[in-house]
Amino acid sequence: MSLIRRNLLLFALALLPAGAVGCNPLNLGLLTPIPVPPWTAERLEQKLNHKNDGRVPIMPPIRDGFPPPICEDAPSDAEVLRAMPRVPRGVPYVYEAFRDNITITKTRLVDKIDPPRFFPLVGMAQLHHCHWECAIYYDELVQSDYPFPVYIKKPRVQVIYIDKDHLHLYVGSDPDTQRQITQELTRY
Question: Which superkingdom, per the lineage (predicted)?
Answer without folding.
Answer: Bacteria
